[in-house]
Amino acid sequence: MRRNSLEAVALEYGANQAPVVTAKGQGELAQRILDEARAQGIYVAQDPALLAMLSRLDIEQEIPPQLYAAVAVILSWAYWLKGMEPGDEKRFL
Question: How confident is the model over 9-22, as pLDDT tens digits?
Fold first, then answer.
C-alpha cells in the first residue's frame, strides 16, 4: 500500500521557449521546494493530475507540447495574481 506523500514540481518559464522542470521531489524535499517558492513570492498551484504528468519529466527537461494548455492555465492564473501580462517575465531576466 502506497502512503500519500507530498510531491512538488517546480517550473521555470521566461528565458526558455517552453517551461522547464527545475526541481521536483517528494516528502521533505517537496516541502522545501514549496517553502522556497512561497518565500520567493512564487504562487503554488495544486493540480494532482498535472503534478502526476510533470513528475515523470526529468530536471531541466522542457514540458512536452501535450502539457502546454494545462501549464498555460496555471501561468495565466499566476500572471493575473501578480498583475502581469504575457511577456512581462522577460523584464526579470
Answer: 999 987 778 999 99
Q: Where are the domains of the chain?
A: 7-92
Task: Enter the C-alpha cell of residue 13.
Answer: 518559464
Q: What is the rounded distance in angstroms from the CA atom of residue 44 to the CA atom of residue 66?
A: 21
In the CATH scheme, what is the code of domain 7-92?
3.40.1690.10
pLDDT digits (tens, 9 = 90+) for 44-56: 999 999 999 999 9
Q: Which residue has the cell 494532482?
A: 48
Contact 10, 40 (CB under 8 A): no
Alpha-carbon span 17 to 1, nearest angstrom: 40
With H, G, I as helix, E, B as strand and everything else as coil, classify residue 89. Answer: helix
Q: Which residue has cell 527537461?
A: 61
Phi, psi of 75 (to 5 degrees): -65, -40
CA angle 91/59/81 to nearest 5° reads: 40
